[in-house]
Write a structure and sequence with these properties.
29 strands; Jelly Rolls; alpha+beta; 5-stranded antiparallel sheet
């Protein structure tokens, strides 16, 4: 909280005077030179005045005159200061004592007259400083009048009669006051704040009373005065913890005499952002918390950035791997080198006759279907002499007229001459998709012989047939056991002449 000064006039009940003090002797010709025209003086040796305050510094003001002597100031019952109030020429409202190096807290100051029975000492006012000097926590003052709901009067409101018709009421705040002369009658004030000021009047018919904050110590005060003084600071209490508090003001007069009155006018509360005694500790406690939060946020940001970088690199690596893998999968495989098909040894040595062909035709080359979809020569089969594909197709699929029909097959096949040896192998590059290719499932019939022998077709046993359907093995074909061969595809699909008998 910021530092602030609290001034307590000599007529305030906050200053407890011992016996022998005179209140504002108007028989003194110079009394008007004191602040507010009031002062307290004593000529009694060791007579004392005591005040309790919460703060860090204090000042005592009075007068120095030719009839004043020495005095003693004691702080917290340990530190003692001896001063002199003597002056040939009177000096009023001057500093008698100060201490500005006190720790923040509650202190007790006592000023006492010296031992000279002919010397005086007087007090004009006392000021003390409260707060820890933290100007960032500005204080807020709140005034609560005696007529507000914050006040509760005990034992009942009947013990505090209305003063609406009292001629002195206009001198009170808002022209309202509560007064009682009932013993142990109480005024309770509920408030929130760090400090409280209690205001009321002192007068010749007022007596003693006590003040207590919450469950704290009880302070006994005296509201008696030679004159009526409204709006007087009756009591100040600082150093309270923030939050709700209760002040209890009790009339301690012993009888229902005329000088046992006690009144209350209003209170002023002060609130600060932090309690004065712990504000420094609170600031220190918040520092590591803030530092920890900042550090945690920084570490979290670092992890997030690292994660994003890792994720980005991993994504790029995956994309690059996928591109390389796709490029490898779709790469163009170069076609294999041309295959040289050697002749079938059985045909070369004459052990297996190839079968007669037409004079203008050549045997059909063996083909296999490659993985690229193109026809490749069959490495496991041999061909005879070179010839064109169209010649082979035409020799194996003769066209019959409407008057022709297949002839009868002989019972025994004739002996066939040996084929010529082929010395030069045939190199083939015919595409599989040629329109001249015969159907792989149609057997080739020897049209130039009456043996009815089926020509073994290399195409049927080529690798392409295993891909196009079930494989057909050569040993599955034997001599035809039927009287006549079945017609080929062209014969079966030609329109027959009804006049021809089979």
């Amino acid at each position: 909280m910021p530092t602030y000064n609290v001034t307590v006039q000599d007529v305030s009940p906050s200053i407890a005077y011992s016996a022998g003090w005179i209140d504002s002797n108007h028989g003194d010709a110079l009394w008007a030179n004191y602040s507010g025209g009031t002062f307290h003086a004593t000529q009694i040796p060791a007579a004392s005045a005591e005040i309790t305050f919460f703060g860090t510094a204090c000042w005592v003001f009075g007068a120095k005159r030719s009839n004043h002597g020495t005095y003693t100031v004691t702080l917290n019952n340990t530190d003692q200061f001896i001063g002199s109030g003597f002056s040939e020429n009177p000096v009023f409202q001057t500093l008698l004592y100060n201490n500005t190096a006190l720790p923040l807290g509650t202190h007790v100051l006592t000023i006492a007259n010296g031992n000279d029975p002919n010397a005086f000492v007087d007090i004009d006012w006392i000021t003390f400083t409260s707060g820890d000097g933290n100007s960032s926590n500005a204080g807020a003052n709140t005034t609560l009048d005696d007529a507000t709901s914050n006040f509760t009067y005990l034992p009942s409101i009947d013990a505090w009669p209305s003063q609406a018709t009292n001629s002195l009421a206009p001198q009170y705040l808002d022209s309202t006051l509560h007064i009682t002369n009932e013993h142990d009658a109480q005024a309770l004030v509920s408030f929130e704040g760090d400090a409280i000021y209690l205001y009321g009047a002192t007068s010749g018919n007022h007596g003693t009373f006590s003040v207590q904050i919450d469950d704290g110590p009880v302070y006994n005060l005296n509201g008696s005065a030679p004159a009526f003084r409204p709006r007087t600071l009756l009591w100040y209490q600082g150093g309270l913890k923030p939050g709700a508090h209760n002040l209890t003001m009790t009339n301690t007069g012993t009888s229902l005499l005329a000088n046992n009155y006690m009144d209350v006018d209003y209170v002023v509360t002060e609130s600060f952002a932090s309690p004065p005694a712990t504000s420094s500790q609170g600031s220190k406690a918040k520092t590591p918390i803030i530092a920890g939060v900042v550090s945690g946020v920084g570490i979290l940001l670092i992890w997030i950035i690292a994660g994003l970088i890792f994720w980005s690199k991993r994504k790029k690596r995956r994309s690059r791997f996928a591109m390389e893998e796709g490029r490898a999968f779709h790469s163009n495989v170069p076609p294999p080198d041309p295959v040289i098909i050697p002749p079938d040894p059985a045909v070369v040595d004459g052990s297996c006759p190839p079968g007669p062909l037409r004079s203008n035709s050549t045997p059909t080359p063996n083909f296999a279907i490659g993985r690229d979809g193109k026809r490749r020569p069959d490495m496991g089969r041999a061909v005879t002499t070179p010839g064109t594909f169209n010649e082979v197709a035409s020799s194996h699929n003769p066209t019959l007229s409407d008057d022709e029909a297949p002839g009868p097959l002989p019972s025994t096949p004739p002996t066939l001459p040996a084929a010529k040896k082929v010395r030069k192998p045939l190199q083939l590059h015919s595409p599989l998709g040629s329109t001249d290719q015969p159907s792989p499932t149609t057997p080739l019939l020897n049209q130039g012989s009456n043996t009815g022998q089926l020509i073994t077709s290399p195409i049927l046993n080529s690798p392409s047939n295993s891909q196009l359907g079930a494989p057909i093995r050569e040993q599955d074909w034997g001599p035809v056991e039927m009287a006549t061969l079945p017609p080929d595809y062209q014969q079966a699909t030609e329109r027959r002449n009804p006049a021809v008998n089979h």
